[in-house]
Amino acid sequence: MISQELNDSLTRVGPGSDAGQVLRHYWQPAALSDELMSGRPVVPVKLLGEELVLFRDTEGKLGLIGRHCPHRGADLCYGRLEDNGLRCPFHGWHFNRDGQCVEQPGEPEGSKMHEQIKAPSYPVVERNGIVWAYMGPGEPPEFPAFDCFRAPDTHVFAFKGLWECNWLQAMEVGIDPAHASFLHRFLQDEDPADSYGKQFRDKAANTEIPMTKLLRDYPRPDIEVEDTDYGLKLTALRHMEDGRTHVRVTNQIFPEAICIPMSREMTITQWHVPVDDETCYWYSMFTSYTAPVDKVKMREQRLKEHRLPDYAPLKNARNNYGYDPDEQARETYTGMGLDINVHDQWAVESMGRIQDRTQEHLGKSDVGIIRNRRKLRAAIAAVKAGKPEELPMRNGTDVSRITGPVSNDAIAEDGDWNAATLTSDEQRRAECPWDARV
Ligand code: FES
Ligand SMILES: [Fe+2]
């Protein structure tokens, strides 16, 4: 349990808020590149409680500026995309991609007033299918050399989905290795051959055991948590009857991402990005270490479960997440279908828009959550003390040397689980068609 005051400090994200100030020191996913593929590449973006508009101008360059026109507040998402910027349809004020007003066609000839008018604007860059924004003070940081950024575009597929809850509880489900044995339990095993693009449906590491069976049979993992340059490394150990140990390594990337194995072929690096205090998007980068990602298939699978343009899931609180008590009795632990994203969505949304952590009771299996909150508190304190140079990955560490992170499932024949996971990671990297060496 934590106090209401601390819960507010850890969760709220608007300008000037505690966690919001920390998040603003890191690149934030603002949109999928896919969203700018239409004939008129202009999309509304709400990020960290701020209303913005993202556009690709006539030179092909990106701009991210305040959504409301600095004149009298009209919505620039309806702006005319012309001359390297957006022109407000109300009185024709024109803004370039830095938010500078460059023309006020209704003001007196020769007026210099526009020189004083600037909409908020933030730097943006595009990386492997995602447009990233930096909304903090000073210079934006370099991108770390994570696999999802190093892999060529052909080997990364990006997608997103809307969750109707605060970002922190959304992320906390990703640093909770114990829940997979329950929330994502399938009472019968599917054919692992049908597992492409899905999580927990492959065989476990180099065994013939379906992942679903392993998670079901061994529900009490030992969880080890280590501090790293990028955040936390979590190792979940499931000690099997035959003396072998299943080792699953996942990661928290400070402040709001996770990196987890999806299958033997791919990992998922997933950001939980605040739209505002009560809504967030997950942005996933599916990274392949073997063949190019089948983006058409991956997109089709996910578009069947989401509506456009806001990427809201079709199963949600309004239709009880498709809950079927017969299915819950016979097939799945939740009764909400086979898509594990829906399970996670139910888990985090059903807590309430902002989980009331004054009423929670954390157990030993919540060690990742406890350690992460401690890191976030330290970061909040550092920013408040005017010492942003103490933040993870902003503290002078050469982020171009922060690689990986290692995310995999492995089987340790003996007790040396660390060697098992590292050997399996080295093998994957050695065989990778792009340069994944670390
Ligand atoms: S409100 Fe935009 S130009 Fe007047
Ligand atoms: Fe999950």
From TrEMBL:
SUPFAM superfamilies noted in UniProt: Bet v1-like, ISP domain
UniProt source species: Arenibacterium halophilum
Key words, A-Z: 2Fe-2S, Dioxygenase, Iron, Iron-sulfur, Metal-binding, Oxidoreductase
Domain (Rieske) ranges: 27-133
CDD domains attached to this UniProt entry: RHO_alpha_C_DMO-like, Rieske_RO_Alpha_PhDO_like
InterPro entries for the chain: Cholesterol_7-desaturase, LigXa_C, Rieske_2Fe-2S, Rieske_2Fe-2S_sf
GO molecular function: dioxygenase activity
Protein name, entry field: Aromatic ring-hydroxylating dioxygenase subunit alpha
PANTHER family for this protein: BLR4922 PROTEIN, IRON-SULFUR DOMAIN CONTAINING PROTEIN
Superkingdom of the organism of origin: Bacteria
Cross-referenced Gene3D superfamilies: Naphthalene 1,2-dioxygenase Alpha Subunit, Chain A, domain 1, Rieske [2Fe-2S] iron-sulphur domain
Pfam families per the UniProt record, alphabetical: LigXa_C, Rieske
